[in-house]
Each structure stands twice: as structure tokens, then as C-alpha cells.
């Protein structure tokens, strides 16, 4: 009997890393062993192993293809996943039959091959191969093939995590995070959770006018209890589609966390909520760095001065090199135009960062001050204000979605407008 898990292999052409909006759920803690025949495929698998989505997987790569795999498992137990590169058609099938006799139950096999042939796919399916990926492959193809083995249909919809942080303290990162989450929930009608990670001083509760007795501290200090039902009970509902995982904002204990302290909370949220917005405080520690690197999308909020520019640049450099298969982070400039304050122009900022800001949010002390003191969102106070529209645009950009409620204006509408005006 062949023990590989059954799943239809897809004859999928390798996609380029530009498919950033495709959602690939991170893999669980699994062991993966790859047996490659060419250095190109070995390099792609190696790079895939460094992708954030395979951060929990243990990956070992060997050369020698099928023959090496059969040899390796004669006496050793098989891992959760075997990735096999195989050049020839006949060799694959004969080799798989041999491998099946030494494979443990539950081991899944992904084949990377060069033959684009329906007949061959059928034979592979019959032998229980989980996926067949056509070479040449880029790292994200390997990431996708491995991660998809563990993201079952039942676990969907899988949520996107958007991380928002400030390049400096007090630049308005939390305010922007809360307003963007509000727009995602209200205007895009996407179920969202804001997680306030500033446990000591977080303002999400104040901004949404909520005073929950439970929140993120209950989860992070009870790691053994974390599951969907438990985290659900800690959420406080702000609007139809928006919930808050609030910070205690108390100082009776200190909040020194290990690097992986929030992993299971994020995994649980990701499994049950379509969009999770992380309000990450401006600090640099193992867990803040990890939360940024493992997010699906990142927004850095900066104010237009030199320290913000340096910090944004450093964050960009680090995040881009740690996430080679992801979209670059986004940034916006906030509190632009404070009277009498010298500022670095957006164009200069863009030149140094090598990317344009996604928004230039004006300094509007009356509007933002009123919202903060009333526990309201900007949209509730000034629905028609330019800033409200900027939050909506950033919400769309970060979720890859168009507005749900208002129909998109037709390209014909200016023409109709003119005709009607006659
Ligand atoms: N565009 C703006 N115009 C005027 N005031 C603003 C603007 N954006 C934010 N503010 C105000 O700036 C203050 C700081 O905002 P916020 O708490 O969101 O910053 P932060 O970057 O999260 O700070 P921290 O580093 O403490 O987390 C708040 O009082 C907020 O209302
Ligand atoms: Mg903040």
C-alpha cells in the first residue's frame, strides 16, 4: 500500500514572486527533506527554506534525487514532507514505487519535474503524490507547494495580517492603524480584529471608546489556553465587522516577552479572521521584529524629519532583505505641514527610501484631537474629509480589495455627467 496523502497535483506553471496578493498560510512545525538533482532547484529550495512562511519548518537539502532518497530511508524514518526533483519520466514512477515501500504513513511527497504531461500526472496521482511542480522553480513555488499541503479547505478563510508601526514614537502609528482597521471593517465590509500590542500604554480601547476587562494580556500570559474559542472570548466588538483585542494599559506588571510569545495568538487569529491589524509599538525587540517580518503586509508611519527618515530607511532595508519573496513594506508620511516646523520634502524622502509614500496625511490637530478625546474615528467626525479618504485608500491597498459598499465609478460617468449637464 502506498502511504502518501492523496491530493490532486496541479500542473501549475511556476509563478514569479510578483503574485504578492496570493495568500499562502505559514506551515506548521514540520520536517522537510529535499533530494535535488540540479543546483538551480537546490538553490530555490534553500531560498524557500528561508522564507518567513517556512520559518517553523525544519528543512534539509541533499543532492542525488530519487536514488539518494530511496537510499536514505532504507533505515531512517521519513519526514513529514519529501521534495523530490526528478528529470526523467520513467525514473520517477519506478523510483516512487520503490520509495513507497520504505515510506512512513503520513509522509507527503512533492515532485519537481520537467515533464508537462497529463498521463504522467495521472500516474503520480495514482501513486499518491501530493503535488507536482514544473521546473524551473522560483522559491515561492516551493513555499506554496509545501505550505498548501497543510492549509486544509476547512481552515479557510485564512486571514491576512497587516502590521503597522511608527518609524519613531508618537508619529501617529496607532491612530492610523485604528482608522485603517475601521475603514477595512466599515467600507470594505471585511471582518477585522485590531490587536493592540502596546500592552502598557496602548490607546486602541480609548480610540474605539471601549473598556473591556479582558484582552491580549489574558492570551499572552496563558499560552496553554490559546485556541479559537478562548481568543474569541477576549475580543470586544466595536462595530459589525470590527473587534478589538485590547491592551490592558496598566502598569502593575512589566511586559518583557520572548521572541515567539505572540505566535500562537497570531496563528489563531489568522485562522478565523480575514484581516488582522497589528498596532505594533515603536520599539525594537525580538517579538516586534518577528511580528513585522511575519506579517503579510507592513505599513510604516513616519513624520517628515531626519530621524524618521533614517529609521524608515533602516526598517525598509532590514524588512526587504528578510522578506525577499514579499512585497516591500509601504510607508506613509503623517503630521505633514506642522506650522513653522522645517520638514523633509516627500520627494526627498521617496528618493532616500527608493519608494513613494502611499499617503501624505496632513497635520490636523483639531480633527485628530477631537477624535482622540471623544473616542471616535476620523470618519465618524468628518466623513467627507480628505483624511478619511486617505485611510480608505490605504485600507484598500493593504488588503488588496476594492470598496464593498459604494459601486466603483464607471469610466463612462464623466461622459454621462457632461451629457446630463447639457
Ligand atoms: N495627522 C495628524 N494630525 C494631528 N495630530 C495627529 C495626527 N496623527 C496623529 N495625531 C495625534 O498624535 C498623537 C500621537 O498619536 P499616536 O498615539 O497614534 O502615535 P503613535 O505613533 O502610536 O505613538 P506611540 O509611539 O506612543 O505608540 C495623538 O494625540 C494623535 O491624535
Ligand atoms: Mg502607538
Structure, explained:
The protein is α/β, with parallel strands linked by helices and 422 residues long. It is 38% helix and 16% strand. The chain contains 17 helices and 13 strands. It has helices spanning 39-49, 65-72, 89-100, 118-126, 139-148, 173-186, 204-207, 216-220, 228-234, 263-272, 286-293, 306-322, 346-353, 365-374, 378-381, 386-399, 413-421; strands at residues 31-36, 58-63, 81-86, 108-113, 131-134, 160-166, 192-196, 236-237, 242-245, 275-280, 297-302, 330-336, 360-362. The chain has an eight-stranded mixed β-sheet, with helices on both faces. A five-stranded parallel β-sheet has the order 2-1-3-4-5, with helices on both faces. α4 links the parallel β4 (108-113) and β5 (131-134). The longest helix has 17 residues, at 306-322. The chain is elongated and about 75 Å long. The relative contact order is 0.12. The site of adenosine-5'-triphosphate has 20 residues, from α6, β12 and α14. Magnesium ion is lined by residues 173-174, 198, 281.
Amino acid at each position: 500500500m502506498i502511504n502518501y496523502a492523496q491530493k490532486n497535483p496541479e500542473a501549475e506553471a511556476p509563478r514569479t514572486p510578483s503574485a504578492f496578493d496570493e495568500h499562502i498560510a505559514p506551515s506548521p512545525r514540520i520536517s522537510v527533506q529535499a533530494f535535488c538533482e540540479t543546483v538551480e532547484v537546490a538553490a530555490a529550495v534553500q531560498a524557500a527554506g528561508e522564507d518567513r512562511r517556512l520559518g517553523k519548518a525544519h528543512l534539509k537539502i541533499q543532492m542525488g534525487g530519487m536514488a539518494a532518497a530511496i537510499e536514505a530511508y532504507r533505515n531512517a524514518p521519513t519526514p513529514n514532507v519529501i521534495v523530490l526533483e526528478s528529470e526523467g519520466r520513467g525514473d520517477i514512477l519506478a523510483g516512487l514505487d520503490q520509495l513507497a515501500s520504505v515510506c512512513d504513513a503520513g509522509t507527503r511527497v512533492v515532485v519537481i519535474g520537467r515533464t508537462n504531461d497529463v498521463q504522467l500526472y495521472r500516474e503520480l496521482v495514482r501513486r499518491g503524490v501530493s503535488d507536482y511542480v514544473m521546473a524551473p522553480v522560483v522559491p515561492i513555488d516551493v513555499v506554496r507547494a509545501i505550505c498548501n499541503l497543510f492549509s486544509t479547505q476547512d481552515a479557510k478563510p485564512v486571514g491576512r495580517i497587516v502590521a503597522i508601526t511608527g518609524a519613531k514614537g508618537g508619529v501617529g502609528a496607532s491612530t492610523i492603524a485604528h482608522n485603517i482597521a475601521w475603514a477595512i471593517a466599515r467600507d470594505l465590509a471585511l471582518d477585522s480584529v485590531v490587536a493592540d500590542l502596546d500592552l502598557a500604554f496602548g490607546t486602541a480601547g480609548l480610540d474605539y471608546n471601549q473598556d473591556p476587562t479582558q484582552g491580549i494580556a489574558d492570551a499572552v500570559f496563558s499560552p496553554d489556553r490559546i485556541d479559537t474559542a478562548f481568543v474569541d472570548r477576549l475580543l470586544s466588538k466595536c462595530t459589525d465587522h470590527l473587534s478589538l483585542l485590547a491592551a490592558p494599559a496598566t502598569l502593575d506588571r512589566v511586559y518583557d516577552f520572548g521572541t515567539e510569545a505572540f505566535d500562537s495568538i497570531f496563528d489563531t487569529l489568522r485562522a478565523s479572521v480575514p484581516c488582522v491589524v497589528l498596532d505594533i509599538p515603536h520599539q525594537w525587540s525580538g517579538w516586534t521584529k518577528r511580528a513585522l517580518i511575519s506579517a503579510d503586509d507592513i505599513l510604516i508611519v513616519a513624520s517628515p524629519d531626519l530621524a524618521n527618515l533614517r529609521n524608515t530607511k533602516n526598517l525598509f532595508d532590514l524588512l526587504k532583505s528578510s522578506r525577499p519573496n514579499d512585497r516591500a513594506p509601504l510607508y506613509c508620511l503623517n503630521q505633514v505641514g506642522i506650522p513653522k516646523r522645517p520638514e523633509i520634502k516627500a520627494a526627498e524622502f521617496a528618493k532616500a527610501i527608493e519608494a513613494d509614500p502611499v499617503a501624505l496625511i496632513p497635520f490636523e490637530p483639531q480633527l485628530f484631537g477631537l477624535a482622540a478625546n471623544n473616542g471616535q474615528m476620523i470618519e465618524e467626525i468628518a466623513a467627507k474629509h480628505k483624511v478619511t479618504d486617505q485611510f480608505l485608500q490605504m485600507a484598500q491597498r493593504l488588503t488588496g480589495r476594492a470598496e464593498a459598499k459604494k459601486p466603483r465609478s464607471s469610466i463612462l460617468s464623466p461622459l454621462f455627467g457632461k451629457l446630463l449637464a447639457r
